[in-house]
Amino acid sequence: MKNGAVLTVNDLRVYYDTPAGTVKAVDGVSFDLRPGERLGLVGESGSGKSTMALALMRMHKPPARIAGGEVLLDGVGDVMELDDEGLRRIRLDRLALVPQGAMNSLNPVMRIRDQLADGIRTHEPGDDRDALTARIRAQLARVGLDADVGGKFPHELSGGMKQRVAIAIGTSLSPSVIIADEPTSALDVVVQRQVMETLRSVQEEIGASVLIVGHDMGLMAQIADRMGVMYAGKLVELAPVHDLFTNPQHPYTRLLIESVPTLMAKRALASIPGAPPTLINVPPGCPFHPRCPRAFEPCDSEVPLPMSQNGRVVSCHLYPEEAA
Question: Bridge-partner residues for 77, per DSSP?
Fold first, then answer.
């Protein structure tokens, strides 16, 4: 694998075919996920973050389609080339999803222990009943839940508890890669932090790599090692999280950070002018140029290519000569 990465994404494109035209939700995105790394993916709503997460799991259905690219999983090969049986074998076992909205992803008429047992039995049918029960208890304890939670139905749990159950299911077979798609959505700020800490603890215990999709940059900064910023289906900046926050290079990244409240200094919150473009009619050139305060001549006609320097990747005509 490239640079020892456990997951490598090359030129991934995911399109939605609609009567109004083709929506390029993910358009030529490339990155790698390193062993044991927590990689955050942020951006405004509609930037392609969740589409990316589902594409890595091959969970899209028409009108969505994988229009091109490859997703290389260490020890497996290109996930895009697997048949249904191949996908069944790697999902949960090698590549797992922690979905957003746990209430919608958990089966409302099955007890929690049965939902945990379902995936384990499918991949590892050899455990007897006592061994399976012990394993389920241990998995619930791993995410900070009491054993009696296994006998409850999802509606009997709080939002934070349901999300912990989703983490327990997603990590029940100790996968090498975890895709966490906005795992703290619809939770209050205290529970968000607790859920993120639970995810971090389990990830470190099993030695997995995590791709975390979200929109809360402040929360993401507390858990991610590196962070990628998406805009209009493209990855516009990727850098170590400290470098990204202290010295953002893409104008969009800078404006996102300036819109985040801080307790360190009093300042007026800035908003990003305009609105994200419709992905059916993306502006020519750099898709951010109609909203960019630093746009200049080539921005409205030439698509900026990703430029790599000092562990950072930026897609901007200003980089690297004038970005700082």
Answer: 73
